[in-house]
Every structure is written in C-alpha cells, then in structure tokens.
Amino acid sequence: MANFPPIRACIFDMDGLLINTEDMYTLCANNILEKYGRPYLPWSVKAKLMGVPGSSTGDEFHRWAQLPIPREQFKREQKEQQRLHFPHCKPLPGVETLLANLNSAHNVDGNKMHIALASSSEKNNYELKTSLPETKEIFSVFDENRRILGDDPRLQKGRGKPAPDIFLLALQVINESLGDGEKAIKPSECLVFEDSVPGVEAGRRAGMRVVWVPHQGLAAEYEKRDKEVLAGRTGLVPIGDEWQLGNVDDGWAVKLVTLENFPYEEYQIQADS
C-alpha cells in the first residue's frame, strides 16, 4: 500500500455516476430495439459499450443488434429518443450531499478542496441531461470553467477515455485557477470518481487515485475481474502506453457500491457533515 498524500482535488465523471443516464441510455436503445422486433440490450453487451466514446452506435453494438435499418437511421432515432428522455435524468443517491460537502471541505493539511467535472458527454447532451431544476442546481457546484466536456476543443480527437487526457486537462484547469498562495496540485493528490471501466483506466493512466462506483448491472458483469478493473488492466480498449497502468492490489483504486456515506477520512478530507 502506497503512502498517499492528502487529497486536494476531486474530479468527477458524470454519466452513470452523478446522474442515472445509464438507465436512460438503455431505455432509449430498448425502445428502438423493440420497435424493430429485436431483444432488449443485455448487460453482457452494454458492459462493453459503457464509457467508450461513440460505442452506442459502433460496431460492437450493431454486430449484436442486427437491426433491419441503416446505421444512420438508428443514429437519428436514437437522438430523438435521447431528446425525449435525457431531460428526465435525476441525481443518483448520495450525489447532492457529497458534492456539497466537498465544495466546502479542506484536507487535513488545511488545503481547500477543489472539484471539477470531466465528462465524455458533449455540450448539447450535457445541457439536456442537466436540465431538470434539481439536477441543474446540484451541478452548479462546478465552476463553468471546471466543466470539461467531450467536445472541448482542447482535447485531441480520438483521445477519449481510457486515455488520461480529459482528467489531466481538468487538473490543468484547476491549477490555472488556484488562489494566491496555493501550490499546484499533483496528479497523486487527485481523486477521480468513475462508474465505467475505461474511466477507471483513464484515471489510473493520469496517475490519480480512483473511486469506482459501477452500476449494479456492470458490477455483476465484472464480478470476478474487480482487481483488473481497479488496476486499469482489463484491456477493454487497447491504446498502448502500458507504463501508465497500475498494478493489481496497489491501493490506488477502490470500489464502492454507492456515493452515500462517503469515507472522507480515508482520503484525509475534512468535510463539515
């Protein structure tokens, strides 16, 4: 077990971690599959799509779905379903309390905690997903310049998760906006919150600690591979740079069932409540 420094920054994924978008993505896909007489999307397939940019309309999905329509038509119908259902996304249990606590927290060294969002969702989808007043209110804890989205021009195309770029950009943005007297935050002082397997790997590749909070369906699919996931070593999306990966049982990543009752003290964070 490494001797970790106190956490100074928390960087959050969004889909399936902060709001129930994974259930919404499944609903949208299933509505189209049912329309064309195809079976509902099983977790054995969905698990390979989660956290992989563009995968919901990619080869893996279409090989399984065998839909009798062109891919472009599926993409159009999927977008229409998403326009209908994304505005009903809701925060997941524990999210409101965790974000509010971290927004006013310090670590044991007295350093102010900093938070940022790092989501593969593009801006238009982000706005749909966070349009409910209760959801919009919760996301207001993220300063606008600390919301890094999938179509951010500073991100190189084709370098989505599991590449570390989005988390490193989030840390760069935090460091550029620190207050007077605050030293730059190192990757090892960052804690990434993720629900997807590529997201965990991206956090590990960034040299950051990671909390993995998978959907129960995803957790069941990876039940016997937890240690590989936490090390970033599933090889779900090969991108090379193996030196960036962690090692099994190295203590840099943990799995939680929920964001409720978050163990702040394990990260040397002092929260008000």
UniProtKB/TrEMBL annotation:
**Official protein name in the record:** Uncharacterized protein
Hey, what's the signal peptide range on this chain?
none
Q: By its UniProt entry, which Gene3D superfamilies does this protein fall under?
A: HAD superfamily/HAD-like, Putative phosphatase, domain 2
Q: What is the lineage of its organism?
A: Eukaryota, Fungi, Dikarya, Ascomycota, Pezizomycotina
Molecular function per GO: phosphatase activity
